Hints:
CATH architecture: Orthogonal Bundle
Mean pLDDT: 79
Radius of gyration: 22 Å
Largest sheet: 3 strands, antiparallel
Helix content: 40-55%
Structural class: mainly alpha
CATH topology: Arc Repressor Mutant, subunit A
Distance between the termini: 62 Å
Amino acid sequence: MLREEFIRSLKEWFDRGQEDNKGESDMQIATLKEVSLFLKVKESTLYSWAETGRIPASKLNGLWRFDMEEIREWFRKSVKRPVKAIIVPLKKIVKRGDIDAITS
């Protein structure tokens, strides 16, 4: 129950951006486990991303910590938009292994 409440509150915060009365954003620090639940990825995957710099993260006393505002921005920039498929008709069916036909 606690996990579902946490995820719901984190999603609500993600959706609204969470700013204080002065217009300055509040820094919300999250653990690796919290961010993995939020992004719905394995903890090992998130750890690998943090180690290789694929996701914004900082180590604090040897433990990975994440600024949720940075995670939000990273997620928005990482979302791939669907691309319309371009259908190109084949001139002829090429037999497997016919390299001359493929390259011409």
